[in-house]
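Quick question: what would this complex look like in 3D?
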Amino acid sequence: MNEPLLAAAGLIILTVAIGLIRILRGPDDVDRLMAVQLLGTGGIAALLLTAYATGVPGVDDVALGLALLAAFATMAFVNLLETDDDETELGETEP
Amino acid sequence: MSPGAPTPSKALAARLALFFGLWLMIAGWTAKDLPVGLVTAAGAVWISLWLLPPGDASLRTAPLAALVLRFLRGSIFAGFDVARRALAPRLDLNPGFVACPLTLPPGESRNAFCLYQSLQPGTLPTGAESGVLQVHALDMSQPVAANLAADEALFKQATGHE
Amino acid sequence: MIALVDLFSLAAIGAGVFFFFAGTVGLLRFPDSLTRLHALAKADNLGLGLVALGLLPRADTALAALKLIVIWALVLLSGASTAQLIGRALRRGRK
């Protein structure tokens, strides 16, 4: 029953790809970032499904790597927002 | 949480077991690689003590299990809640901010509670100022502040903050 | 004939695909960034959780099963914390 797994992977990729319309529409960069985050999570799910459907070793490790790195883009982005903002209360941002 | 306090050996052993388990998960079980894994896990414990010193939370098994069950139930319900609101023919939204006073002291325990809360139905903490958590709610007609206070009480029971 | 385990996998993965779909719809339909953040944080984490749950009985070893759970936990952790960071940045920007 590997075909249903691959079909599910395809459906998830298709769904999150439709979510990328948010990148075109915006209106803010935050909205675009959220669409990319959704693509990241969907990508992890699709990778896991592919790993189990095909049995190729290492694909699930790629998913693990993606999961580990998922937070970094958002954190860098939010740091940028906070440094733009003068009234920030975070201790570690530049004055 | 004074920096000079000795780290309880139970906490050290738990961290070592966690990191060794993660190493096994990535590298697989091969007898000749096990020493490498142990060294790696010990290094990870050392770094983790530096980045995240043991906090003041003392976990209690029974309330913690109840909390985990409540969390899982809540996050499943949260997914259904969002799905229902998104797929309804007319969007069923009444969003706004609710100010919720927190009794948990700032620190890891409060951060963990905010993580917990952000996966519960209809609520998203957006940072605290002087002990008041600003929660964004999807539906202002829900008893957001009362639910949060009940969750916080359970959370404090499970982590030994009373 | 489909075995009971396969049926469980199909049901969980199908439900996972549904929540990815719901998350995308929320991302596209919800009126402002903060409500879209709710859709992102909750729906797709549950989607990935269900996909991982569906794959669990198909894991060959206990360590492979652990990998599925760790990947889900990592995504849960990073999704929930970045949602709060974005939420805080949005709230401060609005003032």
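Answer marked as accepted. The two ends of chain C are 60 Å apart (CA to CA).
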